[in-house]
UniProtKB/TrEMBL annotation:
Gene3D superfamilies: Endonuclease/exonuclease/phosphatase
Protein name: Exodeoxyribonuclease III Xth
Sites marked Transition state stabilizer: 151
Domain Endonuclease/exonuclease/phosphatase stretches: 4-250
Gene Ontology MF term list: DNA binding; double-stranded DNA 3'-5' DNA exonuclease activity; endonuclease activity; metal ion binding
PANTHER family in alphabetical order: EXODEOXYRIBONUCLEASE III (PTHR43250:SF2)
Biological classification of the source: Bacteria, Pseudomonadati, Pseudomonadota, Betaproteobacteria, Burkholderiales
Organism: Acidovorax delafieldii 2AN
Region (Disordered): 239-258
Active site per UniProt: 108, 149 (proton donor/acceptor), 250 (proton acceptor)
Length: 258
DNA sequence: ATGGCGATTCCAAATCGA
């Protein structure tokens, strides 16, 4: 079984690339972030044609998340229950597989812009709410994967310039503490379960030849619960779509499980 | 220190992303 996550920065623009990527990478589930479109504009038909069911939580212009899957999705939850939020950032659903159900939690974490800002404070509140909800979600669904654009570089090795960017957004002590709190729930960063190349990132700035110079951050992650941990066989970042004409600034992350 | 690119929207200067 393969699970993937990809921030596609506008599904309207990137739909052809998503369909092409799925044809070349027929994963069982793909979590998308930054749809930037409302549900009435979501391309259910084109994705069905590509062989995928889909559930979505969209919004005009900003944010928006969806889960695509080979098999039907059930028990869909949109945004964090009990956490009032104007922004479409979370969608969770259960996928039945040969080895049992898997709970998929797809998140577009808050960016936060700048430490000390109101947006950063919103990021901290959102991270706390996610953590508190995931505790109950994990109890209800032991086989759980948390996938998405976390907007956090968990460690110095996840940044192209950890010294120059110390305590800037995605690198702050507070954001990293929240990431560690998610791990403390029993989740494991699938990418770090395996030996990986040096300077491996999942996002590169469009500006200043960021990708060509590999000035990137590893901010897109797949975390797996204790019950799934032993079944994870591989986790990779697929840099190929970042080389496409008109690419997303993020690359897909793929986890392979038994 | 700032902007640099790309997408979106009251269609075009402003906002947001990371």
């Amino acid at each position: 079984m393969q699970l993937a996550t990809w921030n596609i920065n506008s599904l309207s623009v990137r739909l052809p690339q998503v369909v092409a990527w799925l044809a070349a990478n027929p994963v069982d589930a793909l979590c998308l972030q930054e749809l930037k479109l409302t549900d009435d504009k979501f391309p259910f038909a084109a994705l069905q044609e590509a062989g995928y069911h889909a559930v979505a939580m969209g919004q005009k212009t900003y944010n928006g998340v969806a889960i695509l899957s080979r098999s039907p999705l059930r028990d869909v939850v949109r945004n964090i229950p009990g956490h009032d939020d104007q922004q479409a950032r979370v969608i969770a659903a259960t996928m039945d597989t040969a080895t049992g159900p898997v709970r998929l939690v797809n998140c577009y974490f808050v960016n936060g812009q700048e430490p000390g800002s109101e947006k950063f404070a919103y990021k901290m509140r959102w991270l706390q709410a996610l953590h508190d909800w995931l505790r109950t979600e994990l109890a209800a669904h032991p086989r759980l994967a948390l996938l998405g654009d976390f907007n956090v570089a968990p460690e110095d090795r996840d940044s192209y310039d950890p010294v120059g960017l110390r305590e800037t957004i995605h690198h702050t002590t507070e954001e990293r503490a929240h990431f560690q709190a998610l791990l403390a729930l029993g989740l494991t960063d699938a990418y770090r379960m395996f030996e990986q190349p040096e300077k491996a990132y999942s996002w590169w700035d469009y500006r200043m030849l960021g990708f060509q110079k590999n000035r990137g951050l590893r901010i897109d992650h797949i975390l797996v619960s204790e019950a799934l941990r032993g079944t994870v066989k591989a986790c990779t970042i697929d840099r190929a779509p970042r080389k496409n004409p008109q690419p997303s600034d993020h690359a897909p992350v793929v986890a392979t499980l038994d």
